Amino acid sequence: MSGAVIVGAGPGIGASVARRFGQEGLPVTLVARTEKSLRAAADAVAPTGAEVLALSADVTDEDALGAALDAASEAFGVPDAVVYNAAVIRPDAPGDLSARGQLAAWAVNVGGALTTAARVAPAMARRGSGSFIVTGGMPEPKAEYVSLSLGKAGVRTLVELLDLRYGPSGVHAASVTVTGAVAPGTDFDPDEIAEHYWRLHTQPRTAWQREIVHTGR
Fold first, then answer.
1. Contact 60/66 with Cβ under 8 angstroms?
2. In the chain, pLDDT over 70 holds for what percent of residues?
3. How many angstroms separate the CA atoms of 117 and 187, rounded?
4. Which sequence spans correspond to the domains of the chain?
5. By CB count within 10 A, which of 57, 78, 118, 171 is most buried?
6. Which helix (H) or strand (E) holds 188?
7. What is the distance, to the nearest Å, from the Cα of residue 138 to the centroid of all Cα atoms in its chain?
8. Is a pLDDT exceeding 70 seen at residue 1?
9. What's the CA gap between 34 and 200, in Å, rounded?
10. Does CATH number 3.40.50.300 belong to domain 4-214?
């Protein structure tokens, strides 16, 4: 097994997904912007005994992100699964952000996901297998969350494009859409949400889902 890569690792969904894959014996590469996030995710994986590689990279820095993804492949081989979990989550109504501000949010919410996919999906396709899973959200746009609504619509479309391009070669592109605020002990417990990622990764090709929606019900 070549392992899993979690881009946007940290407390919450990122750490829970990393731990879930680690529980299956896969080595886990954690990619996050801050050392604090990396430590939180690494601490979550530690009890599983899985091998962990923690790498710092800003998803808006194409060179740094690419170098981190290359390091993961060099350490463990072409990943079995890559999860893109980075996002800018903040309220902003129409007109609250400048065009530059919207582009900055888009760079994290969508641009980083595209950079990640472009770096790993071709190698997965050449091998004939792999999962590329994005953390989605905002199944319906909300006027008080403009940049996030646009971003989540963007990654939903990106998943469809990746499926068109790489699905025939065996790469399962999918998203987990979370419809509420993530918090332990609630209907949106990150450990429960993490199960969806493992389910998507292990689905047989004949039963592939492109999206799982976690409603908390």
1. no
2. 99
3. 30
4. 4-214
5. 171
6. none
7. 15
8. no
9. 28
10. no
Distances in Å between the alpha carbon of 77 and those of 82, 132, 184, 212, 217?
12, 15, 33, 28, 38
Output the six-digit token pair for 23.
Answer: 């529980």
pLDDT above 70 (res 64): yes
| Token pair in block for residue 31 | 């990619």
pLDDT at 41 over 80: yes
Q: Is the pTM of this model over 0.90?
A: yes
* Residue located via tokens 């954690």: 30
Joined together, the tokens standing for residue 28 give 């886990």
Distances (CA, A) of 103 to 14, 33, 89, 145, 150: 24, 18, 14, 15, 11
- Across the range 73-99, mean pLDDT stands at 97
Least Cα distance to 171 among 117, 118, 131 occurs for 131
Sheet holding 211-214, edge to edge: 52-56, 28-32, 4-7, 81-84, 130-137, 171-178, 211-214
Residue with tokens 């801050």: 34
The amino acid at 187: D
Distance CA 57, CA 196 (A): 26
Q: Confidence band (pLDDT; 50, 70, 90) for 200?
A: very high
Amino acid at 193: I
Residues 122-152: tens digit of each pLDDT: 999 999 999 999 999 898 999 999 999 999 9
SS3 call for 20: helix
Could you tell me which of 10, 134, 110, 135 has the C-alpha nearest to residue 60? 110
Relative orientation angle of helices 35-45 and 13-22, to the nearest 10 degrees = 40
